[in-house]
Amino acid sequence: METEVVVRRVSDALQQTFRRLSTLATGVGILAFLIGAATFATGLWIFDESRGTWAVIGGALCGIPLLAALLGRHLVRRTAKHAPELVADVRSFLDTSVKSAQVLIDHDSGTPIAGYVKSFGELRRELRDRRKELPALFAGVKVITSVPGIAAIAVLGTLIVGGLGTVLLVGGIID
To answer: Which of 64, 86, 118, 148 could form a disulfide with 136 if both were Cys (CB 3.0 to 4.6 A apart)?
Structure first.
């Protein structure tokens, strides 16, 4: 009975984490789109004589943060579709070893992994060896560990694109 409670709590925590990551990626994507579109439009205005060149170079520069955010959102959504399989994978993972259970839950506090573990390194290493056996859990942990980095790339890229747009706008107004 205790294992079922643990399985349900860990699965719920992972699914909640997927929802939060999806919201993060969506918000970053919207912001990246708005700032990228404004910068691209400013570049078209500034580089009136070389619009073709700006369309290629500026389009790539302005599109990278948006693509990163869309990639993160896609990964989370694709993994979240396998949520029913996640429960079975968590159950199987917990049943295989005491070490697995200690990775997934802190028995002293009963806190699930999503609220307890700051680094998923140990869990990811163990799941890498068992990715064929536990595909949904492996994919879930992989998304949880990779999407924040992808979102950081999108945010950093958006800041750079926004800075470029500001410089272009100031240059266009002064000129």
So the answer is: 86
